[in-house]
Structures are given as structure tokens and as C-alpha cells.
Amino acid sequence: MKKITIAIDGFSSCGKSTMAKDLAKKLGYVYVDSGAMYRAVTLYAMEHGCFDGLQLNVEKLRNMMQDIHISFQFNPETGKPDTYLNNKHVESQIRNMEVSERVSIVAALDFVRAEMVAQQQAFGKEKGVVMDGRDIGTTVFPDAELKIFLTASPEIRAQRRYDELKAKGQEASFDEILANVKERDYIDQHREVSPLVQAEDAILLDNSNLTIEEQNEWLMEEYLKRVED
Ligand code: DC
Question: Which of 9, 11, 38, 94 to mutate to test the pocket of ligand 1 (most atoms within 8 A of CB)?
């Protein structure tokens, strides 16, 4: 069966990665979480003194970009690739609140995006890839055969992230998470470089009231339509 490129974009904490990961597993495709790459750059910036509170020293980060190497290694326990920053496992660190609060600032920088987009395109050059993010269907793979734009209400998304952090035993406040979700939506949609917009040929899916199984079934049908014709 022919291999295609699948782009899943949408708002934060919509379940894009769950959806993308499950589909990649079923199809034997490579899964790439592009948000993890922006998170890893943010963690590097934090660890190397580029941030003073929420204030970023952009020039300092620009000069460090060539020292940042991001890679993924499949974790059979979670069924997902874990993120490595300069060969160090950073999968849980990149999901903490300190990184979440700063990642939109880093992801809005043109030189960071140019570097990440180039790496993402290299990951997908053989096709057979499911990638999730904000600009996959618009910028990274504008020719992707299947594009999904995922959304859900901010409250439902905040609840999902809250449950996720609690399940991992991490401290979490629902109100803080909700504020962070709304703030990131705003920044993601209003930044100058590659703002979050639905690609014209993407299918919109609001999964507020769908179970993961229902969502996966729907996605498989959409995939089959693309490979059968
Ligand atoms: O999906 P996520 O919450 O892990 O993404 C982290 C941040 O990275 C989010 O604020 C948006 C940004 N991002 C982006 O700008 N472009 C992408 N392709 C993926 C994520």
C-alpha cells in the first residue's frame, strides 16, 4: 500500500499526540511530536541562562542554536518516541510547567522555527510519517495527503492536561493550567512566523465529546480514503 504523509495540527492539549501516536503504531509509520522539539529548545535555553524569569535573551539563544541536537528513541513502554536533548533523556522534563510557560516565546522565533522545520522535513522525507504540531499541514508538509485540524474547548483541554500531570505525580493547579492553555492559544494564533491556522485542505475535528476509540476510528476511515483512491 502506498505510504503517505499525515499532518495533525491544532490547539494545545487536544490529544493530537495520542491520536498521531496510535495511528502511526497501527500503520507502522514514524511518529514525530514536533512540539517536543520546541520544548527541548526551550529547556536548553532555560538550562543555559537564556531566560531571566519569562524574559528571553534572544541573541544568546541564537548563538547557541548549533549546540542543540534533538533526537527521538522509541520507548516500548509508552509506545511513543522519547525526546533526547544532546543525548540526554528529557521526556518528562520538557512537559513541566516551567517549560510550558516559556515554550511559546521560543517557538515564535524565526531562527528556531527555520531549524526545526528543516529537521522535521528531513524526518518525513521518505513519507510514512505522522507528525503533529501547529504548522505541519501549512508549512512543514504543505503537500501532505491527509491533514487534520484538531480542536476542543479550553476547559476540556485544561482538564486533560491536569489529569495527565496528576497521573504522573506532578504538582498541578487547574486554574493555572487553564490560563496557560488560553495564553498559548493566543500566542500560537497571533505570532508572526507560522501562526496556528487551519490549512485550507485540512479536515476540522472537534473532539470535545469523542472518546479516543471514536476518534481513532474516524481517523482510520479518513486514512483509508486517501490510500484507496
Ligand atoms: O504541542 P505542544 O503543547 O507540546 O507544543 C509546545 C509549544 O510549541 C506550543 O506552544 C506551540 C509550539 N509548537 C509550534 O509552534 N509549532 C509546532 N509545529 C509544534 C509546537
Answer: 38
